[in-house]
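Researcher: Good morning. I'm working through a list of sequences from a screen, and I'd like to move beyond sequence-only analysis. For each chain I'm collecting a predicted structure so we can compare shapes side by side. This is the next one on the list. No need for commentary yet; just the structure.
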Amino acid sequence: MRARKSTGSIIERATSRGPSLHVRFVAGGKRQSVHVGYVADGATRADAERMLAYELERVARGEWAPPVEQAPVRDVPTFREAASDWFAARKIEGGRRGAGLRERSVTDLEWRLGHLLREFAATPIDRIGIAEVDGFRRRMVRRGLSARSVNMTLACLAAVLEEALEQGVISGRNPAVGKRRRLPSQPARRTYIDRAEQIEALLDAAGELDREPHRQGVAHRRAAMATLVLAGLRIGELLDLRWCDVHLASGRLKIRAGKTAAAERTVDLLPLLRDELVTLAADRRKEQEPDAYVFGTSAGQRQGATNVRRRVLAPAVKRANERLVKRKAEPLPDGLTPHSLRRTFASLLYALGESPPYVMAQMGHTSSNLALEVYARPMDRAEPERLAALVGRAYRATAGNGPAASESRERQEEGAAR
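Model: Good morning. Structure tokens for this chain:
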């Protein structure tokens, strides 16, 4: 856009910071250009007209000299540009941990960035201050997002801004960092199952679903639920499990590289789970190539986690609760997830009398605090014996250093021989 004067002109240029005003004129036989300012910083066309008149008057009096050369103004990227670069690096390098992000982490970051881009996409990154962050937080609350979701999104914003600070794109302090930027939130409610009757009802309900024709979702739901409850696998570990990792003769599962270095581990099969997997192996013998997924699709592809949650766990929980209500028993806890079943496995091992180091090894944990504070659950005095009877392992009141009963090993070896 250009407004022509007799001996000069006003130029408006588009930049990443928004419109930038300049005046252009001839002095000393050469065309000169002087920057007036950015519209975002308050520069107006009237300012440009006054600047042009002043420079032309200096030229007419012979007083005009080129301005002292300054370092070129660095264009500040918009939040969209900065966030795109940050996200691309995270996907490839996994941030500071040096490993690529898992599919679920990518999806989670895309969700957070979606909220941020809705608010800040075209905003120059150095124009995001404390007032803008606080305003964004209030608007997220009005949209009905939970405190945890708001805080996680603000943490994502802080990470993008921190990267810009490290690269010298912006200066000062990170406006998205600090307790005052966050919402107070309650610790996440961790659900688990601590009753033998409830575990049995869940597995029976999953088996009942297996017997119904034309059901969509993961086949062999009972075996999938049993593997989550009785081996403590994360949902991704369950879906990545291949037949070459299932060693029925020795009674072990091999879990390959996962969330952490400790996640690569060997899990001892409880007798009940071993029986379930033996039955599954017999049913799927034609599909049992070493590299085949244990819980793959009918086409042999890897299942999606959402499919397991919606079409396996949710209907199994619903049907299990119907069974429990008929018996006038306590229903399953609300909000059960695949990770709830992982917590159930840890609590089950503690109930059977296993030691914290053994439980940590089975879970793939490195923190004893996490193992005890999060996963060790109090149970009724009689419940450990009921759980032991359900899973086929002996119960002992004092913790030991390995699988709780040698007779379970003998049973596994006898089964393998058969």
